Amino acid sequence: MAPYHHLLAHMPIALLSVAFLIILLRFFSAGELARRLDSVLLYALVLGIGVGLLTLVVGMLIWPIDAATTSPMGRNKILISGWMLACWVAVLFLRWRGGESVWDSAPRYAMLGFGALGGILLATTGTLGGHLLGSPSGLTALFRKIGWDVYHTYYAPSWVLAVLAAVGVAGLVIGLLGTRKTAS
Ligand code: HEM
Prior knowledge:
There is one protein chain. It contains eight helices and no strands. The chain is mainly alpha-helical. The protein has two domains: about 1-155; about 155-184. Helix 1 packs antiparallel against helix 3 (about 40-60) and helix 1 packs antiparallel against helix 6. The longest helix has 27 residues, at about 1-30. Protoporphyrin IX containing FE (HEM) binds next to helix 1, helix 3, helix 5 and helix 6.
């Protein structure tokens, strides 16, 4: 399965990197080039996320499932690539539901935020792949400096999970209140 994983991995990396560049350009510019590139953003996102999911599934099949889910590097790869795709799904949802007007209102900041986070997690997924292959990049030295050694399972304290759950619930409540206000 490894050769197919290598083959597939280039597509989400290329398509989602292009998506990030389009987001960056459209965030800062309303010019014709930015608008035209924005009109293909949805296609790049759908293809990037779709092939990304396939890459993730094929990645899980390279090693026996026990090895992938119990080794720190395997777990980190699953965790980071899952978060990365979740981020890009949020961008897709925002752009799909918001249409072109997403760039004229507050959600444009969410587009930039999720796009940037998705881009960072995409680079992290790629660099973890390099480690698994035996060719680590310098990016991991930066991670070590900010406190994460990629050879240990990524750990978040329980209170961080509680804060994340609270932010999620608050987001849902704000969304529901906003929908009711618009309806009335
Ligand atoms: C969208 C998700 C993913 C992307 C974009 C991705 C990307 C990559 C990249 C760029 C490489 C290095 C390949 C090369 O240099 O040619 C790699 C290698 C690898 N990845 Fe992933 N990966 C993803 C998900 C996963 C998952 C979920 C696993 C499961 C643990 C995984 C396991 C591996 C392994 C074991 C290797 C080394 C393969 C070998 O030894 O030849 N990947 N990946």
